[in-house]
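Forum > Structural Biology > Help requests

Title: Can anyone predict the 3D structure of Malic enzyme?

Hi all, first post here. I have the sequence for Malic enzyme but no way to get a structure on my laptop. I'd be grateful if someone could post the structure tokens.
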Amino acid sequence: MSNDADYTVAGRCEDVYGEDAASLDQPVTPWTVTVASGYSLLRDPRHNKGLAFTENERDSHYLRGLLPPVFLTQQIQEKKLMHNIRQYQVPLQRYTALMELQERNERLFYKLLIDNVEELLPVVYTPTVGEACQKYGSIFKRPQGLYISLKEKGMILEVLKNWPERSVQVIVVTDGERILGLGDLGCQGMGIPVGKLSLYTALGGVRPSACLPITIDVGTNNEKLLNDEFYIGLRQRRATGQEYAELLHEFMTAVKQNYGEKVLIQFEDFANHNAFELLAKYSSSHLVFNDDIQGTASVVLAGLLASLRLLGGTLADHRFLFLGAGEAGTGIAELIALEISKQTGNPIEENRKKIWLVDSKGLIVDSRKESLQHFKKPWAHEHEPVKTLVDAVKAIKPTILIGTSGVGKQFTKEVVEAMASLNEKPLIMALSNPTSQAECTAEEAYTWTEGRAIFASGSPFDPFEYNGKVFVPGQANNAYIFPGFGLGVIISGAIRVHDDMLLAASEALAAQVTEEHYERGMIYPPFSDIRKISANIAAKVAAKAYELGLASHLPQPKDLVKSCGGLGSKYLKRPGFIRNNRATNGDNGASFHCCCCSVSLSQPAVPDTSSSSVRKRIVSGVQPTGAIHLGNYLGSIKNWIALQEVALECQDMNWGTFKTLMTDALVRYEEIISDPTYLDGVLAEGATKATAIADA
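Reply #1:
Sure, ran it for you. Structure tokens for Malic enzyme below:
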């Protein structure tokens, strides 16, 4: 047997695609703790607090004279910024202001977003993010995330290693070919991954440093962008076929090699043909999730489950008609069929017959099967051809009408009135984004049905009053699902995504709708409760992962809701991130409640893996501008369940806090450090368990 490193993982077989290495928990290599201070601290968005640095913190971190003398609490900073943002009349100006805040004071950005989520969500996400992507080249100031283009083919692993964070848990990636309902925006689609990951942190509690936005640039077919002098991407037509497939395969392989088996890869806004192919190709070998197909399906199914309280009956009692047969439409339809199977036990093929789709050529029927794309064929039922939507409504007589066409104003007055003539309470979901592409507005739906419609949309609409009653439109926003879903995957250490996990997310969201919401015509809970909602969704998703045997973080926590909520709270409120606590003691203003945020972790050039050396360095301490190699100690934390929480707390805190925490941990877990044999056994046991889970 070869002793070459390439062959020793699998045994006589080179680990070309990282399949074996990625199935193991990634070892924590010896780290360096570097303490930022002074001017560099103020230029570090993750650690900068601006005028919220206290007097003690200004002294201990060499900030005297670098800031005006006034001290402003985070609450005052938030109040001032919200006042400034509200002065902007143009949504894109608000978006730009928030992105600039994120680039200079990350903690304040998330504090602002968390406390004002209903007001700011439409700014950092749909609909404003669509306009931001269209004009991304003009407003671009500082890169956020990684840009991987055809120029990097053959070097993608090296490009990933250029990213400063090693512990990445969630990647959101796009190739920019189908941004919302706006079409091919090429490299400028980066606004979507950046916005999505902001919500992973604000709504789900995932650490910002664990999130990585990526744009894969293979060119664009948008002539306007190709001729735009400010366009930031490759100026060439889109690569397709084998060239495209090879680049994406290299990317997927490199991600797994660099970040391991349990990094969640979320596909965003790929064109239909690529979206389905990528999901089918990599769902069995990678932890992948397509928000346009699976996330949209999950949030819409949640709305349908909740609406049954108003409509009556079960899902199996209703007939569904979709306008749009792309990745969103077919994804929703499939999840509805799966949920009906779960409820009734009927074969999924039988359930699909209750669901009809209309594309640009009319109703999808059996006589068109030969010319249909593969993902449309399961929805081709026996029926005579029907060309228009209104005729399809009259022929199929649906109780639920769902729009995913990406084309605005398709639910005309004639269509909506036809739905109203067939149903006492027609459910109309105009899901296309942004607002300009919605199939109809809330006002149109309520007016044309004389206030009888149950309405939901993809982008937000204001409440509407009709005949003295105020209707609150529901928003079938993916932001309800993907932050909690991703958190559940992370909590459980899931290695694959299963359809039952999506169903669990839908059922958890539907359960959050109360009688008070139903009285206002709502089929989704308000976003003001989103962090509680995300924790409940995460708990259900994690529980399902454990039930299916897909979880690798063992044993299963007794209270998953508390664990999920606690993790979100820890990431969002722990010292050094959101909470504006003052130093309480210590000559450096360093205590467990101080939020100096001046310590970061990175890999050193020269490792020191000696346990005794590690212990001496931690106990003796270093100067504020020095460094310390942690070696085996942090390696043991990574692989020792009892100390995982300590490992999480090691990041984003000042040196005094770090030293106190580590010294205390050394006392409590002395045997792990002092007994190399015991430590080796722990690491070997962890590796064996991880391999067994992967093999299973």
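The longest helix spans residues 291-311. Confidence is low (pLDDT under 50) at residues 1-14, 26-33, 571-655, 668-674.
Shout if anything looks off.
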